[in-house]
């Protein structure tokens, strides 16, 4: 690609060992597709948990994406990887403070350690650019319950702070990944407002978030609304039980590419990023196979780098609408501001989760005490067992009680306290931030 453009791809690879169907074949196909096109400057992959899979992709794209980073987090790894055409000078990973509960083995978020990963690259035109890659907490959906949605809200707040801080340090920001949230939800509002990030899809499809009572066709949902998950066209989604939102809109837009300018006291001298193209990719089946590349489609965005003082011509077919042309001037370097209404809603959700967590922790600790009492009772009663064949049953029962009691102690005391503290930390942080906004607004009036 020319230096005046940045082509970015994000894709959730669904690459969990022993669990994801056709994992190895799909990873090979993804690597082959990337090596064949050679059109991307930045590639961010999620759910690439197996290191040998990362190595295969890295070797396949090394000719044009020579710089790469695989990130570690949690017990099973973050599943995040970034590939770059430009030199990487720094890397960082920040695990989210809340990632579900350890007892939720089926969900698995706690074990993989969902996180925000980033690299800093040196670009010949932009200088330092911080590239973020993330995968937010999965459970919760659009309808709650609130104690599940709260974890993703905490993820969104922590991610927004990282992206905002990068811009305040004078870097361009590009943020991509699987955010597990449709565009109109509170986590996406937090990310857009607090981090000041521009949604590349909305720049090129400005009306795709407009509510509609008409259900689009599966292809229209992809082309016009950016659906990347739960699409009937995807072989891993077809026939799967989907929620009401996915059924109504033929899928969900869960994958995003954001960008923003650095904070600067003199923004007029800086190059400006603008999205000239954004489309859903990897929608076809793996060549020679009967399955898709992943249970998600990929998202590609091309960001044009405009030199200072030069805006695109209104006759330029690359920028067909006034809203797109205006987007160049809205790339302010001023600090972004989240609304007080958004903060209030977040505080209510997190407080609700805090109350639920306290109640759950108390029940788990009560169950721990019950397990201890049953163990003592069983140990005393075992001395009067009249039949030897009862001993194996006693041993199995004792092992089960010991496991359950230990698990409830950890869940109720260690994890329960951790969750409550994390929630209260964010609530207090939001309250302080809200107070600062109100003071600043009062001074301006």
Characterization of the model:
There is one protein chain. By secondary structure, this protein is α+β, with helices and mostly antiparallel strands. It has two domains: 5-336, Deoxyribonuclease I, Chain A, CATH 3.60.10; 341-444. 42% of the residues lie in helices and 19% in strands. The protein has eleven helices and twelve strands. It has helices spanning 23-37, 51-61, 109-112, 146-168, 186-195, 200-204, 218-225, 244-249, 322-329, 340-381, 390-444; strands at residues 5-15, 42-48, 67-70, 81-84, 88-95, 115-123, 127-135, 172-178, 198-199, 255-260, 272-281, 298-306. The protein has a six-stranded mixed beta sheet. Strand 6 and strand 7 form a beta hairpin. Helix 1 (23-37) runs parallel beside helix 2, helix 4 (146-168) packs parallel to helix 5 and helix 10 (340-381) packs antiparallel against helix 11. The longest helix is centred in the last third of the chain and has 55 residues, at 390-444. Mean pLDDT is 88; it is low at 313-330. Keywords: Hydrolase, Lipid metabolism, Magnesium, Membrane, Metal-binding, Sphingolipid metabolism, Transmembrane, Transmembrane helix. It holds the Pfam family Exo_endo_phos. It is found in: Membrane. It comes from Lentinula lateritia. It is a multi-pass membrane protein.
């Amino acid at each position: 690609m020319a230096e005046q453009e940045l082509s970015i791809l994000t894709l959730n690879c669904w690459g969990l060992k022993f669990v994801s169907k056709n994992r190895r074949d799909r990873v090979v196909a993804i690597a082959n597709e990337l090596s064949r096109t050679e059109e991307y400057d930045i590639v961010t992959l999620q759910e690439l948990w197996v290191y040998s899979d990362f190595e295969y992709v890295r070797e396949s794209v090394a000719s044009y994406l020579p710089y790469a980073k695989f990130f570690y987090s949690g017990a099973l790894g973050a599943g995040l990887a970034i590939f770059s055409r430009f030199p990487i000078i720094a890397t960082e990973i920040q695990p989210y403070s809340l990632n579900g509960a350890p007892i939720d083995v089926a969900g698995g978020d706690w074990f993989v350690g969902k996180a925000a990963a980033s690299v800093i690259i040196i670009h010949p035109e932009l200088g330092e650019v911080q590239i973020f890659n993330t995968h937010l907490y999965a459970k919760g959906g659009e309808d709650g319950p609130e104690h599940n949605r709260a974890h993703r809200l905490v993820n969104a707040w922590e991610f927004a702070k990282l992206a905002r801080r990068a811009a305040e340090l004078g870097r361009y920001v590009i943020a991509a990944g699987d955010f597990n949230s449709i565009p109109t939800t509170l986590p996406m509002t937090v990310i857009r407002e607090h981090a000041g990030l521009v949604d590349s899809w909305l720049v090129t499809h400005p009306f795709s978030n407009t509510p509609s009572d008409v259900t689009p066709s599966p292809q229209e949902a992809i082309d016009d609304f950016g659906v990347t998950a739960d699409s009937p066209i995807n072989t891993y989604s077809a026939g799967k039980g989907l929620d009401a939102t996915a059924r109504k809109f033929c899928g969900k837009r869960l994958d995003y590419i954001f960008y923003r300018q650095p904070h600067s006291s003199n923004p007029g001298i800086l190059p400006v990023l603008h999205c000239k193209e954004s489309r859903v990719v990897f929608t076809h089946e793996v060549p020679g196979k009967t399955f898709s590349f992943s249970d998600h489609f990929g998202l590609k965005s091309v960001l044009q780098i405009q030199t200072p003082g030069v805006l695109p011509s209104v006759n330029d077919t690359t920028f067909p609408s006034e809203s797109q042309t205006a987007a160049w001037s809205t790339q302010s370097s001023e600090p972004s501001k989240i609304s007080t209404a958004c903060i209030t809603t977040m505080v209510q959700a997190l407080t609700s989760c805090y109350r639920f967590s306290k109640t759950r922790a108390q029940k788990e600790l009560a169950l721990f005490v019950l397990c201890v009492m049953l163990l003592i009772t069983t140990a005393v009663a075992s001395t009067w067992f009249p039949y030897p064949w009862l001993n194996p049953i006693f041993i199995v029962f004792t092992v089960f009680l010991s496991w359950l009691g230990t698990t409830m102690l950890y869940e109720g005391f260690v994890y329960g306290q951790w969750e409550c503290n994390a929630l209260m930390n964010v609530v207090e942080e939001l309250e302080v931030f809200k107070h600062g906004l109100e003071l600043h607004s009062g001074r301006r009036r």
